[in-house]
Each structure stands twice: as structure tokens, then as C-alpha cells.
Design goal:
Blueprint lengths: L5 H15 L22 H15 L16 H12 L4
Length: 89
């Protein structure tokens, strides 16, 4: 499992997005407030990212949470994970 601090979560997300990015792979991944779409993440890769998150943190996103706005940036995604884990910010 990945670390549960907010910074650990963001680091995991940046690495995962960078690994999935097809258009502009980069070692560090996108900035926290940069849309992950800018990194080349399409809808299919977003599903792969969600699966990676659910597996790494042993959480599940409900159908009504599967909105693009909830997965727009590293910061937004990290906030969703933090809420599900109950991690102090």
C-alpha cells in the first residue's frame, strides 16, 4: 500500500499519471493543479488510474463519484482519497 499522508498520496498520483500518460510522459507527472488531461490521460487511462487508486488505498469509488470533475487534477483526486481514508490534512 502507498503512504497515506497527503504528500504521499500526491506523489503516488503524479507517478501513476506519468506512467499512464501517452502524449507527454514525464518523470515527475503533472503539477498538482494541472488538469491530468494535459498529461495525455484519456477516459480509458482514467479508468486504469481509478483502479490503481482503489487497489493501492483499498477504497472504492461509487458510481455517482465517477465524474470527470472529481478526477480533474492531482489535487482534486488527492482530496477525494483523503476524504475516503479520513486522513488529517
Amino acid at each position: 500500500m502507498s503512504g497515506n499522508s497527503v504528500e504521499d498520496i500526491k506523489r503516488f498520483l503524479r507517478s501513476s499519471v506519468a506512467g499512464l500518460a501517452k502524449d507527454r510522459p514525464s518523470a515527475g507527472g503533472p503539477e498538482d493543479d494541472e488538469p491530468i488531461r494535459n498529461a495525455g490521460i484519456d477516459s480509458m487511462q482514467l479508468i486504469h488510474l481509478v483502479v490503481q487508486i482503489e487497489t493501492a488505498y483499498d477504497i472504492a469509488f461509487e458510481d455517482d463519484e465517477m465524474l470527470l470533475e472529481n478526477f480533474r487534477t492531482i489535487a482534486v483526486i488527492a482530496d477525494r482519497i483523503v476524504q475516503k481514508l479520513g486522513v488529517a490534512r
